[in-house]
Design brief:
4-stranded mixed sheet, Neutral endopeptidase, domain 2, Collagenase (Catalytic Domain)
């Protein structure tokens, strides 16, 4: 069973970044009726931080992103090992440094718990490049042997001795993730979330996205690079002279090639090239028959509940019971319920897999496993991976080794590292401030729902019931306690997540979290019309740097959450400020109001400098809109923003037509 491993550290670091980066208006709010100014060091530092970011040659009503981030972008240099730099990135780097200072301390067998010792040893072993280079690619060769060999390299490989069930069983026994053809995971039951259920899902793919895999090899550079990665990997494993030559001369130019030729410069037996091309085509066929992104929003079509017996009846050419048990090591029966995600993909597999030679399937599965291990080998394979990543993302150099190793620890030992980080960095267990913010945001959304004029009474009551039933896990496990500044702008994050419960995806779940249509037809139609306004608005955002438009359909859920969440946060913040008995002094250097500071603080969170390769990928893959349009899109829909900055109607940030749902 391929359950998601704990990701405590990831969520914890994201939470940490949010609350550190958003040290904003509660501390430095401004009341224009008072002339007294704050002269503390913290106030001066915050004022200097704002001054270093603002481009005051641009008015906030014309281009708020440029106004808030212009000077910061101009003065920021993207590090050579990164495709982009943002305020989040800068804070994440600090977190990595703090993590490193913890796990590089000496191992104390008398004090350190077993998991602590393992974490520190893992990090040290990752740093030990001498040992890694001395081992060469021997660890990978042993792994391939454990998998039963790689047919493309093994002249003795016999198709009669291998079945698909055998392959899945080996992967499970070794402990490798097995999602190359289909994935079996554990999810909450969509109709009854009090218990879990097995889900049969489509494959993941070797490229970053399903849509990348279905492109034409001869016309797409990302697919060409992927194919060359396949060929160079097999060449290093099959041609020992070539491998030793690369180890000796330390010169690597794996991805310098003529786009027209694709693979002509790679000296490999044509039969091997043909087999690897067949592997690529096999993966492309899988991708082409999986669900498109734009089709996976309707959960009533996406989730298909049935027993394993019914699954085998629908797909009789695949032994699903045996396959699921091989993947999970459970003793499921024919009566076990499963959720089939993308039922058309399962039907496709039923006729495709039995008619595909096992040699092709094995070559493909082994390739996908090998690809995940390249970066853990010696400097030859590491250079191959680094050049591949650089060609895709545009970064000139790889991350420093210690940064790579921190990422490896985070991926493989996340829960242990999270425990260590919290114990070493925090001393307080007070979540009262955050919980107070949650209640304030929920209260504001309750008022919003009550005043909404496009919902019928019953749907509105159900929405209010759903809001009241929401429970929050504030970014880290309950047993991990944090003492940290919490600024008012953390409100927006909570508001964003609350609003997700009422976007096009989340609205399909009822107040108890069950997948159920609880919307009146007329109200649902109104929601779709309002959502389409958001889609149309963001579809118009054009990035001249890469000659691409934002995909308003693929980003609409995040855009709805952004627009609704910021509005909730703003109203909750203003209410909190108005209820304070004490007045707060002005910041040095500026005369911004509390409302203006709210928007400036929100804007500064979005400051980012990104290279064109990464910007293109963000537009193609990220469910979030690129930051420039993400910020300007939100503020241009906000009447509060227009009032705070006195933007004339018809200016870019205060258009006559606004899109508003919540």
């Amino acid at each position: 069973m391929i359950c998601s491993s704990p990701r405590w550290l990831i969520s914890f670091i994201l939470f940490l970044l949010v609350i550190i980066i958003l040290t904003l208006t509660a501390i430095f709010a401004v009341d224009q009726h008072y002339e007294q100014r704050c002269e503390t060091r913290a106030c001066w530092e915050e004022a200097a931080n704002i001054e270093a970011s603002l481009n005051t040659e641009v008015t906030p009503c014309d281009d708020f992103y440029e106004f808030v981030c212009g000077k910061w972008i101009q003065n920021t240099i993207i590090p050579e090992h990164k495709p982009s730099e943002s305020r989040f990135d800068q804070l994440q780097d600090k977190v990595k440094e703090e993590i490193t200072s913890i796990i590089q301390t000496p191992i104390n067998g008398h004090i350190d718990a077993d998991f602590v010792q393992k974490t520190k040893r893992f990090y040290r072993s990752c740093l030990n490049l001498t040992a890694i280079n001395n081992r060469g690619d021997e660890p990978l060769r042993r792994l391939i042997d454990q998998l039963g060999g790689w047919p493309i390299l093994d002249s003795n490989w016999n198709e009669k001795n291998v079945t698909l069930i055998d392959m899945h069983s080996r992967l499970r026994e070794i402990g490798l993730i097995d999602d190359m053809i289909q994935s079996v995971t554990v999810i909450s039951h969509d109709k009854d979330n009090t218990h879990n259920v097995l889900a049969v899902s489509p494959a993941t793919f070797g490229l970053m996205d399903r849509d990348f895999m279905v492109r034409d090899l001869h016309n797409d550079s990302s697919l060409q690079r992927y194919y060359r990665l396949m060929l160079y990997t097999i060449k290093l494993l099959s041609d020992r002279n070539y491998y030793e030559e690369k180890r000796a001369n330390l010169h690597f130019d794996f991805f310098e090639y003529d786009d027209i030729e694709i693979d002509a410069d790679i000296e490999l037996d044509q039969n091997i090239k043909n087999q690897m091309l067949t592997v690529l085509e096999f993966e492309q066929i899988l991708a082409n028959n999986s669900m498109k992104k734009e089709d996976n929003r309707n959960l009533t079509l996406l989730f298909n509940n049935m027993t394993i017996h019914e699954l085998e009846k629908m797909s009789p050419n695949i032994e699903w019971l045996e396959l699921i048990n091989a993947l999970t090591k459970l003793n499921s029966t024919q009566n076990e319920e499963v959720v089939v995600i993308d039922i058309n993909y399962v039907k496709f597999l039923d006729h495709f897999l039995p008619n595909t030679p096992m040699r092709i399937i094995s070559n493909y599965i082994v390739w996908r496993i090998v690809k995940t291990k390249i970066g853990a080998l010696d400097y030859v394979y590491q250079s191959l991976r680094e050049q591949y990543n650089a060609a895709n993302f545009g970064n000139a150099k790889p991350e420093a080794r210690w940064q790579q190793c921190v990422a490896q620890v985070q991926t493989n030992l996340g829960a242990a590292l999270s425990n260590l980080y919290v114990k070493n960095q925090f001393t307080s267990n007070d979540k009262d401030v955050i919980n107070k913010i949650v209640l304030q945001i929920k209260d504001e959304f309750y008022k919003t729902l009550q005043s909404t004029d496009w919902m019928d009474h019953q749907t509105k009551e159900n929405a209010i019931k759903k809001l009241r039933s929401m429970e929050f896990r504030i970014g880290y496990p309950d047993e991990i306690v944090i003492d940290e500044l919490v600024s008012d702008y953390y409100d927006e994050i909570i508001g964003h997540e609350i609003t997700h419960g009422f976007d096009g995806f989340g609205r399909q779940f009822d107040p108890t979290g069950q997948l159920k249509n609880w919307w009146n037809h007329a109200t649902s139609q109104m929601f779709e019309e309002k959502s389409q306004c958001i889609v149309d608005q963001y579809n118009k955002y054009y990035s001249p740097e890469v000659d691409m438009y934002v995909n308003g359909m693929n980003t609409q859920d995040e855009n709805i959450a952004d627009n609704g969440g910021v509005g909730l946060a703003y109203r909750a913040y203003k209410k909190e400020y108005d209820n304070r008995p004490e007045q707060e002094p002005l910041l040095p250097l500026f005369n911004y109001t509390i409302g203006q500071l709210f928007w400036i603080s929100y804007g500064m969170v979005n400051c980012e400098k990104v290279n064109n390769e990464m910007l293109k990928l963000n537009i193609q893959l990220d469910p979030h809109t690129p930051n420039r349009f993400r910020l300007n899109g939100v503020v241009s829909n906000s009447y509060e923003f227009a009032n705070d900055f006195a933007c004339p109607i018809g200016t870019p940030m205060n258009p006559k037509q606004k899109c508003k749902i919540w």
